[in-house]
Amino acid sequence: xxxxxxxxxxxxxxxxxxxxxxTPQSCIELSENIKQHGLMxxxxxxxxxxxxxxxxxxxxxxxxxxxxxxxxLLLQRTEIEAIVRSGLTEDQAKLVNLVENLERKDxxxxxxVRSLKALFPPDTTPYYISKxxxxxxxxxxxxxxxxxxxxxxxxxxxxxxLTASDLQxxxxxxxxxxxxxxxxxxxxxxxxxxxxxLMRHRGxxxxxxxxxxxxxxxxxxxxxxxxxxxxxxxxxxxxxxEELYA
Length: 246
Hints:
Layout: E1 2-6, E2 10-11, H1 28-37, E3 43-47, E4 59-63, H2 65-74, E5 79-84, H3 90-103, H4 109-119, H5 126-133, H6 137-144, H7 151-158, H8 164-172, H9 178-190, H10 195-201, H11 209-221, H12 228-235, H13 241-245
Helix pairs in contact: 1-2, 3-4, 5-6, 6-8, 8-9
């Protein structure tokens, strides 16, 4: 339901937003856009009766935290257009927050990683996350397993040297080859070369008939029927054993 609400009755919880804490200065460009074109996307709130808010608030903000700051703090407006979502559990509210940020591409790769870890239990599978978020299994796998990478690879990601695309290449390599590949991708990035070119020229090991037969026997023994394209990728040498098992 779309309504116009008084901003002083909406509880802004900094810790709830999956983006984490951000500065008002980062919302200046957004506030100028809202001033010129209006609020293109309403914020999303839930009634205070569905959650816990301090006394005096009627709603809690669950999505649109940067827009809220732009409207209230920078533009000094006392009302804001909002969509009211009633009957949400805490996890459902967090999911709304995450999905909207993902759809608007408002999150960095590391913010996406932290958001998934905060929302889903440790034993969740990337496949389940992909169904919930309507994202590809590959997208979810790269982010969900990020903390399993060696520390120096994660440091290169945090410094902006390696990207999410680079991590996809690294995950698809054999475990024994990942460190070497990560270094090659890092040097390519630092020298300004396209990493896609590096990967095209990187040697691939085609599977032998014995390899393929062994894998098929193992999968059939475990009652697993792999998707055809995954089996073909593995047979061509583009998908490591552990990825096919997963």
